[in-house]
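Appendix B. One record, verbatim.
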Amino acid sequence: MDTSIRWSNLLRLPLVFALLASVGACAHVSQKDLDSRLETLRGDLVGQIADGDQRTAAELGLRMDQSDARIAALRADLNTLEQDFDMKVAQLEDALRFDVPVYFGFDKAEVQATGREVLARFGQVANKYYPDAQITVEGFADPSGSAEYNLALGLRRADAVKSFLVAQGMSAERIKSVSYGEDARRLVADGAHGPGSAGWENRRVVLVIDHAGSMTSAAIVAEGSR
């Protein structure tokens, strides 16, 4: 029930008490008159409560319609990303994981031209639907070289993507860079590595939007996303 209605009702209670007190103060006020006045007041209060309930229901309905429209728009945008860039969007417990087609040259950490468009489109979606959410850029490397070196290389790649997203207008404070290096559990092509073009699938980044606490829940994942 609307808080303003509840307070309005409470403010009217002294009127009821005053009306009751008038029975003892004014002998000419009959029981019938008193009952009539109380009934009028009760009807007024009931009417206000009903009006408040109707307004609350209308406001809730409007918010639900707006939320449904926003969810439908996000689903459409995610589907478009998947179709345009052969991207995969997966729902985690409190996050969305974007396996983006952003790859790096052997022993390189520069964002290539082929990855810039998809990153720009990702940034648009993230800013539109999750303007305050934490974004994590996960960097990876193929298993050529030492594990320590590849951990640092993966971080350089994640930092390069973060810098690109910041240049597109995203806040640096909401983007975190991490590296998994050559972690065998996250390799796309097991054991594949350079030099040269071999192992290109493993030289990549993954983007994760942490939507915990966001108004947009797990239900927004595009139909067909896996």
